[in-house]
Write a structure and sequence with these properties.
mainly alpha
């Protein structure tokens, strides 16, 4: 029966996950995008497209921002 941990095993047990605030922001944005897009859908097909847009909302946001800034 093994009772002592090796230094490597001790180090592996001490590793902690820190951060995750960006996951929370993305999750809230995801829910908000779904409410926005699916709430405006009048057909099932528009609802499906709204669901997919909700998954990629950060890319759509950056694309539209860059398109807006490119106007002369």
């Amino acid at each position: 029966m093994k009772t002592e941990l090796t230094p490597t095993e001790k180090k592996e047990q001490q590793i902690k996950f820190q951060g995750g605030s960006s996951d929370t922001v993305y999750g809230l944005g995801l829910i908000g995008a779904w409410v926005f897009y699916i709430g405006r859908a009048t057909t099932f097909q528009e609802g499906v497209v709204g669901f997919l847009k909700g998954l990629v909302w950060p890319a759509l946001l950056v694309y539209n921002l860059l398109k807006f800034l490119d106007k002369e």
